User: Fold these one by one.
Assistant:
Number 1:
Amino acid sequence: MKPVDCLENGVQGLTRRELLTWAGPGLFLLFGADWFGNDPLSAQEPARLPARQGYPTDINAYLKIGPDGRVTCFSGKVELGQGCMTVLAQILAEELDVAYASVDVVLGDTDLCPYDMGTFGSMNVRNFGPALRGAGAQAKAILLQMAAEQLQAPADRLQVKGGVVTDPSTPGKSVTYGQLVQGKRIERHIEGVAPKPVTAYTIVGKPAPRKDAIDKVTGKAHYAGDVLLPGLLHARLVRPPAHGAKLKDVDTTAAEKAGARVVREGDMVAVLHERPDLADRAFGLVKAQFELPQPTVDDKTIFGHLLKTAPPFQNAGASGDMAEGEKASSAIVEETYLNSYVAHAPMETHSATVSIENGEATVWAGTQAPFSLRQQIAQALGFTPQSVRVITSYVGGGFGGKSSAQQAVEAARLAKATGKPVQVVWNRAEEFFYDSFRPAAVVKIRAGLTPAGKLALWDSQVVGAGEREAKPYYDIPTQRTVSAGGWQGGNPAGMHPFAVGAWRAPSVNTNTFARESHMDILAAKAGVDPLEFRLNHLSDARMRRVLEAAAKQFGWKSAKAPSGRGVGIACGVYSNACVATVAEVAVNRVTGHVQVKRVVSAVDVGMVVNPDGARQQVEGSISMGLGYALTEEVHFKDGEVLDRNFDSYQIPRFSWMPKIEIILIDNPATPALGAGEPPIITMGAVIANAIHDAAGARVLQLPMTPARILEVLRKA
Amino acid sequence: MERTISFTLNGKPASVRVDDERMLLWVLRSDLGLTGTKFGCGEALCGACTVIVNQQAVRSCSTPVKDVAGKHVMTIEGLGQNGLHAIQAAFVKHHAFQCGYCTPGMILSAYALLLKTPKPTADQITRHMEDNLCRCGAQVRIVDAIRDASGAPQGGVE
Ligand code: FES
Ligand code: FES
């Protein structure tokens, strides 16, 4: 799906409804744009997307202080489970000097929250954080100025704690933020307020109780499919059996006879009923005929197909003279690494509920990008974006897969067609069918060693995965990396038989698997311990530090692989975050089964806003990483996705979990980078390297299923 | 067959006039408005829809409503009606969730385990919870939370 431009907002990023919303009681402040850096647009944008609006310059877009002193924080980010709600509350509480418990958070509501391009790429704290911090600092300065007038004391003498402003030289004299605001609309502006220095933090940098905890353990947390409205209809849509199949004929009479409503609009054929399961039952009576696509490609032939259909290679980094590198190399190691398509498979399938009243649409959607969705829905309905409100309540996992929200567009079209509120909740088969998979990829690496065991040459080609972090960060004098095709779209038609997209740390899982597997092969060739081999080629201090920290925690003992112990090491970079992982595995040589026993992960993700939150993200990354390393691959044939549920598509379970040890490197000098993605990138390679160390079997293809491991063992 | 099915729901009498072959999940969510019970797979493969029926954890997506006639059904809304249950409190304390979508099913599966085995080992917990899937990777914390909650009084509303 093409990204949609969102230029609909008026002055200062406020929509009509936002202005109306904030005309009521509350603090109304104006401030300058100086705090969020000089380029707010690019701060939010991956380089290749067309320019879109940045974060608003009005602090009222970010926060509101009620007469009771409670603070509401507004953000266009969404809570996918990553702890966004908690972290943003911490940041705002810190800057305002109010109690963390007094902050409420409203997320992903296009009427109430400032524009945001979406929740992905670990940009929550990295990009929205500074904007929120600036807004909080400005608001505090203005509140202090107001307090100074009220208490008749110079502002710089005042102290704030828990939203109460006191004058230390006049004990007993105080005023609260709530009293200062008094429900009045105040417009003030102070130039050049610097956010709090990191050294003064008391809330940020410490664990905090999750804001979403009570909702989530009591069943009160509402997801998009939990919205019940009077007259609500549940819809099931006719789906093609394979990508590329064309609807020829459809007979819905039996479904209608069974009491369901049927909507036909162009290619969309839907069966609707007040009960979701009865919609499903009636749907079973629909007879649809499709013209199947020509046989194309399947999960076995895909790799050759990718090589044939890929666009021309693009340069992804080069230095030195390749001929020199060849000359300096006394040994060359060349391998090809493969990875299959991988699904996001969040536990909540794509869900949406849409109600249209008086020409205004309200959309509850499980989405990572509510503002782009608003635009899409408006387009689909022929409405102005201002008459569409997207509300993102809790989202049951995203991992990149809920950046597009086709289900909400479907619900919106059906709501318009029926005049009733409509809910679309994809079943698990639809979730697999319409997922934008992590692309299958082929990575070829050719590397050369000098007689002294130093890397002299690195020549790599990435097809399918994308170029991110494909260029090695090791000290290699002569190197060249090229890449063709990727997850962002723009691939030639027919290259991938279905949609591909961002999957937790896009590109980088594949590229790290290939590079770090290759480094291990090279280390073995050089007869050097894999940790030592990496350190011999690393001058980057942060990367050295995570490697050394992980090795130390693990108790790494130098040995030449395969040592039979089943230990592996790998490191990587993701968006300037550094991660090193050590794993210990046991390989059953009879069944090919791998049990990962222990994982040590050291991460440098810059400043950590919430250490417990960061740990949760590392744990989640390790768990999800086990899946793509060991079992997860999408089976398909001629456009048909053969995996339809969790029986054939196996995701990690309780018994797979290793003992997990996490080291968060203390690095407050680097801005927060986010911990949700970096720790997953090494999981393929670290397990591949540990399997090799255990059994002497080098598996070059993800996932490393028992069958693939046995095959390598047989050949060894 | 359309008929009236009566059962005890979260400690209170409930009856619904429905096609008795319909799955309990949808009757709970749609007819009775109890949306805490989640749909994840529809084929008894994920555990998101777990509820307690007569002290046992069952998959409501694959349990026809006729099977609960005259029985005690407890959903996540019924647990800890007077303050958090020990398991819920332990999930809060350990942050044993991320997106929270699997959480009601996890908590109720754990509830059934602790009724049977008040002091489970980590191994017993793992075995019991094995078919409850969590894509966010909260498993390690869920095990910790269940261990923490074990031994505390386990009675809920039935
Ligand atoms: S929805 Fe019932 S087990 Fe998955
Ligand atoms: S917390 Fe998200 S699936 Fe378990």
Number 2:
Amino acid sequence: MLHQNLEWFFPHKVEEAVKLIEQQGVILHGGGTRILKTSPKSIKGLVDVGRLNLNYIHHADNHFSIGSASTYADIIRYSLKTNKLLILAKALSEAASTPLRNRITIGGSLKDFPIWSSLYAPLLALNAQIEIAEKHEKILSLEEYLDSGMIKTKHLIKRIIVDDIPNIIGGVKRFSLIRFEYPLFTIAVVLQVKQKTVSEARIFITGVKGRHKRCKRAEHFLIDKELNDETIQQAEKHFAPKFVSDYKYSAEYKEHTAKVFFTDLLHELKGTLK
Amino acid sequence: MKFPFKVNNKSKDLELLPNETLLHVLRNNDFTEVKCGCNEGECGSCTVLLDGKPVNSCQVLAMSVQEKEITTVKGIGTLYTPHFLQKSFVEAGADQCGFCSPGMVLASYSLLKENPKPTRKEILTALDGNLCRCTGYVKIVDAVEMTAQKLQTNNLEME
Amino acid sequence: MFKYVNQPIEKIDGLALVTGEEKYTDDFSFNNMLYVSVLHSGYAYAKIIDIDDSEARTMHGVVEILSYKNVNRILYTTAGQGYPEPSPYDTLLFGKTMRFVGDNVCAVAAESKEIADEALKKIKVTYKELKPILNLEKSEGSSIIIHKDDGAFPKIPVFYDAKKNIASKVEANVGDFDSAFKKSSRKIELDFYCSYGSHCAIEPHASVSYLDVRGRLVIISTTQVPFHVRRIVSHVAEIPVSKIRVIKPRLGGGFGGKQEILLEPIVALMTWRTKRPAKLVYSRREVFKSTRCRHEYQTKVSVGYEADGKINALHLDALENAGGYGSHALTVLANAGSKTLPLLNKIENLRFTGMGVYTNLPVGGAYRGYGATESYPAYAQAIDMVCEDCGLDIVEYYKKWCIKSGETSAIFQALGEGKEGVAMTIGSTSLVECLDEGAKLSDWYEKRKLYGPNSDFNKGKRLKRGIGMVAMMQGSAIPEIDMASAYIKMNDDGSFNLNVGATDLGTGSDTVLAQIASEVLDTPVESFIVYSSDTDFTPFDTGAYASSTTYLSGQAVRKCVEEIKKQILKVGAEMLSLSVDEVELNDSRVTAKENIKEEVSFADICQYSLYQKNQFQIQATASHISPKSPPPFAVHFIEIEVDTFTGIIKVLNYTATVDCGTPINPVTAEGQVEGAIVNGLSYALFENYYFSPHGKMLNDTFGKYGVYTAFDIPPMKVKLIKSYEETGPYGAKSISEININGALPGIANAFYNATGKRLHSGPFAPEYVLKVLSEK
Ligand SMILES: Cc1cc2nc3c(=O)[nH]c(=O)nc-3n(C[C@H](O)[C@H](O)[C@H](O)COP(=O)(O)OP(=O)(O)OC[C@H]3O[C@@H](n4cnc5c(N)ncnc54)[C@H](O)[C@@H]3O)c2cc1C
Ligand code: FES
Ligand code: FES
């Protein structure tokens, strides 16, 4: 339960918001869906991001710029309209539920990073960058953001930047038996293919031990190979994420199924190549 | 504390505490048509529309939506002036215990307003946040399809 | 043939439901109301050494705290069943022994819910932890005794042995199973495990109480059994029945979960003691952990048969996990036998053995299907195995061997609810038509030809398809035990107040009962002001369970309205100066048989009877008990696809043909079928309780438990195939429970058809399926 003397702030400027969250116990409020679950009594103030003009999706200079106050639904709608950001939109359209997707923000989901995140795997695979508003503004890759431990510090996320690279193919797959179930894991694969040959590969999985993992061995294996049945069969051997058992599924089952899903995904991608 | 809100097209001062969810605030202010099945964002019986889009009101802190238009199921139609979508629900038999109905009606309303000719898949997606344990969903989906049909044959728009 | 019955009449509460106008329990609030929170045990098995609530009591806003310290020790059963109940008296509202994680420790009433919750944290409970039993197979005769020296006793003379942890025991024999089994040339055995399950009615349990102006206690509650609530609250809270009124407002689903008296005595005591209104609403987590669930079951079927498929002997054995208390432990068990074994009534040697044991896990209770859900997976797979082994088509097999009209099964008499059963001959059945029609609708024969474990279609494939089927029966009400009654009176304008004790859980029974009344009086459904489930104003009804409402309460309504019809005809005849034989009912009028133009309207009749001559109130009441429990029948055909790499089963098509006699309202009846199928499917494929090593349920939210959304349902075909049940209202039987039973056995049989392997444990979660597939 949040404290009933909680104070609310509705700044109109990012700088104001950044200042406000310097106070102890004051944090940002995006959609609020996570804050409500964890809702520690120690929170004294909430700074709403709703009026910071961070709800936008732009396309310019060969990249997409997604404001952190955009919701999952905003991105899906944008994608439907423009036929862009398809990989990301597909992943998000399977997340949570229609009414929640209308509330969950990109900023809150990046900062929070739940194990069932639908956002991280595709963004990491797309090599997205994240812009942080601090005293010194900075843009860093999402991978760095995680690996440097930056995610654990208090800050305001302004936007996400995704390059619009023409000849990539990619996809996501998540494991959940029914629609409204927290997914066990999400795999995202993004490949650049030139003349049938894979020239670049980024493969990420979330939901694993340590939350996320870049599958470098599989990436290395795929590069410079033609994406055919044999390659895919071989690639599976280089994809070995580690999981933790939970009450429903053993780690072995998850590992096994992740491999199956990975191969399925590669087959699907192969199918998109003409 | 009282704060101004817009509910069902009317301005209304709602009594609330800053840590309360929209669900609690609405129910405490006599909007008991908004139901609580789980309080965790996992059943959709608390669905309301915020600026026309469905959200789980139990997952929304009330203070954060003061400037938005809030619509409960009574804002779509009442017992005395029911919306034809609500009539379709009754006609199709989509109303068993009715606990999920306010949420289902709002989710369907928002869908049809944005997309008057939804495919079956689009209907199923639009309802994916609303649990119903009574109907098995068949007649609820029927009700939405029936309404879409009514829109088309009578050249109507959702309002 | 019928005018109002068998018509898709819209639900009389429909518009009020979909416009949010209807009130559910939590929608009632009163001035000066207290909010109640309950502290539940975190231990599976523990003794409370002491409760120190001194700090909580001094908290601002805390008004009352109930625990074993100030609540009398009165044994009862939380099961809302006929009295004396067949469930053992083994429960205390607040005891000193905690028998499962979720058991009641104490309750706080405070000025707000927040304060009540805060106060719970300030209550210091000293426990002595005991070693629990967390495995149903280890309970019987264990050195750990769950109800030890607590005085628990059976209310009716049945076998009960708390010292051995046995909550219930049932045995029935027809013929001589042992020797017939021994003599049989072929034998199979199959065991099957059924998991825990939660009803997941979307409305959580809630109760509100207050004192009326004369100091009587009024309880508004989410209950399927208002009259049992009144009786049990009176017993537990020591308040005379005359001082209690129980009202069931709209109910947000029940499925058996609200056939249990859990919250009502707590609010009752709070209000009785403080003289203030009190409200208790359970959180979803509390509903999962602390209320009742589907019993866990381990069943086993042994069949002795011949090469031509003739079954000589069949034994069904069931081990039931009652959990910490024995609510419904006996009757669910008995139904596991009585709702399956009569289906193939030509088997001469039948044996049913069952035992319910205590464990320190959540408490079982009534749940749609009531034992049949738990026994059909083993039973129907065994029949499938016999047919596979003998090379017989199972549809034809059922047609040949199933119970037919005019036939009986000795099981009906042998297996009752806590006593002998009631002998019964089948009247209505369209089971054979259901089998034929279902086979047609599902393309059974084509698909059976196409699929099969060694078919070209499946051989060497990752995705394998199969189709399976199951035929089922259930019951309609508990014969010679359940009673329903109705009261009707006529108003000036020709409308009627129809007051029934029956409880509409959302099933539409208020509408269905009005339709029956309409049919008798030939007047529209709108003429009836239906008021149900209020112990002050409606006559008695045992409640909504055992698939009884349409069949039993419907017949009470019919009788009652027949009675008022006589009075209307008499007054009408008097007004027309004719004899009663010379008049008839005709579209809300009484008309002369000879000349339809000679007429008096219902309105005129009532005004005459109230104001003009020989004045009296046209009114009637009637009660009904049933001498039998005519089974509805259903056949389900399920087509699936198994991903042999991941173990994920996808249901491709679901076809159900159902015999419920006359469907009084075909739309609401279909809704019952569809709802039950979807619940059955999710139970078959993933619903389960997962426990920590200490017996704590881990997946206690909808998101973790898993409930189907609209997005997940397979294509379904549902067809009602009429029969006419002479003992039911206008030929009706029940429909609400039976269709939840088909998914587990139907999918299991389809799985065999796809893979050649048998499933032995529900739910058919992918990891388990993969394990089965990898077995040699
Ligand atoms: C039932 C349910 C199911 C779900 N299923 C899924 C799923 O399948 N897939 C999925 O991806 N997600 C899912 N989610 C969402 C996920 O669990 C989080 O709740 C969500 O991502 C948080 O987003 P928010 O905008 O509501 O964040 P908030 O709750 O507002 O904030 C979360 C954290 O981020 C901080 N924060 C907010 N905005 C910013 C910002 N701009 N910059 C820096 N920090 C910020 C806050 O201070 C807080 O610490 C589900 C949620 C629920 C309730
Ligand atoms: S009450 Fe809000 S989603 Fe269930
Ligand atoms: S009608 Fe009961 S939950 Fe949907």
